[in-house]
Amino acid sequence: MSGNASKLRIAVVFGGRSAEHAVSCVSAGSVIAALDPDRYEVVPVGITREGRWVLSDAGPAELAIVAGRLPEVSGGTAVSLVGDPAGRGLAVLEPGVGIGRALTAVDIVFPVLHGAYGEDGTIQGLLEMAGLPYVGSGVFASAASMDKEFTKKLLAASGIPQGDHVVLRDAAGALTSDPAALDQATRDRLGLPVFVKPSRAGSSIGITKVTDWDGFPDAVATAAAVDPKVLVEAAVPGREIECGVLAGVGGAPPEVSLPAEIRLRPGTDWYDFSVKYVDGAVDVDVPADLTPEQVARIQDVSRRAYLALDCSGLARVDFFLSTDPATGEERVLVNEVNTMPGFTPTSMFPQMWAASGLSYPDLVDRLVTGAVDGGPRSHG
């Protein structure tokens, strides 16, 4: 164990180069506040929007959203992760010299990163090369869950139902060659409205709800500005349900939380970024008002989705609970799988586990303990 022999040294990494930079900062502030200082020594490591790693002195208060102001990683001592597994930590970047003196060793990394360059397998690969244990899913599961196209393919291969959709590769180029970008048969199949979204992004960034095909090109351009690969999804009327999954203790099967429901307030059209993080124009039911049979079905599909994507540590599975217009039967459709969901105490994932009997500090502690027990990952 590094540093103080009685404490575990945790590098909490946050910020990052993705459009979800601010959300990551907020989540990290909550995680830092929850780590027991008598048991853990926290090393806060911020990643700027440009990709610089810095030792941050920002506390939970500075990492919160206040009066609509979004937090951001800015200054701090420049550091770099030591790639040699024997280094086990961080080194200071000396101006004009490069990697200079060793700074500190760490026992474990908690990458509280959302979106590209954090939740997509990139930092997970870096940490594996450095030989450091870390919280969350590995390289493959992180990458596959971040890319909505491949999430859907893996879920389909496991027989897990989802809504109708199409994928536009090189979406900006597709619009240049064909402003419609979808043939009439596809439009007829999907119907209206549709949601146009980047394939590899989260927090509803870059998503547009299209209610008239005349607005489709602009919606694709908005999504393509975030990711050149774009998904077009048929809207699924019904209830929005979420469920949390945690790795089982000691190799036991994954555990699932009680599900929760997101309900939009009157006048709110859909669950976009502002509604999620700024306006607060939603109500949440934790747990959701569901029958025991519905709860069991959602929990079963959540566990199956977690395993289908080879997740580890944690995940949040998002659903639509709807009625099949042709048969009248109830459908449980998976929308997305998030391997590092929002992590403030008021985020859905911690709320669902609190309702299931696991408090926020205990949840954080369990994730850290599980990652330590698992040790460094290996491809051997």
Query: Helix amount, in percent?
Result: 25-40%
Mean pLDDT: 89
How many domain modules?
3
Unreliably modeled segments? none
| Strand arrangement, major sheet | 6-5-4-3-2-1-7
Q: Tell me the CATH topology of the largest domain.
A: Rossmann fold
Question: How widely separated are the two ends?
Answer: 24 Å
Number of helices: 11
**What is the CATH C level class of the largest domain, in words?**
Alpha Beta
Query: Any idea what the radius of gyration is?
Result: 21 Å
Oligomer: single chain
Question: Any overview of this molecule?
Answer:
Belongs to the D-alanine--D-alanine ligase family. Residues 152-369 form the ATP-grasp domain. Its main location: cytoplasm. The protein has helices at 21-34, 122-129, 139-146, 148-157, 171-177, 184-190, 216-224, 273-279, 292-308, 348-355, 360-374, and strands at residues 8-15, 40-47, 53-55, 77-81, 89-94, 98-105, 108-111, 165-168, 194-198, 208-210, 230-234, 239-246, 255-256, 260-264, 282-285, 314-323, 330-338. A hairpin with a 7-residue loop joins strand 4 and strand 5 (89-94). By secondary structure, the protein is an alpha+beta fold. The chain folds into 3 domains: 8-136, Rossmann fold; 144-162 and 236-339, D-amino Acid Aminotransferase, Chain A, domain 1; 165-234, 2-Layer Sandwich (Dna Ligase, domain 1). A 7-stranded mixed beta sheet has the order 6-5-4-3-2-1-7, with helices on one face. Strands 12, 13, 14, 15, 16 and 17 form a 6-stranded antiparallel beta sheet that branches. Strands 8-11-9-10 form a 4-stranded antiparallel beta sheet. It has 11 helices and 17 strands. Helices cover 29% and strands 26% of the residues. The chain is globular.
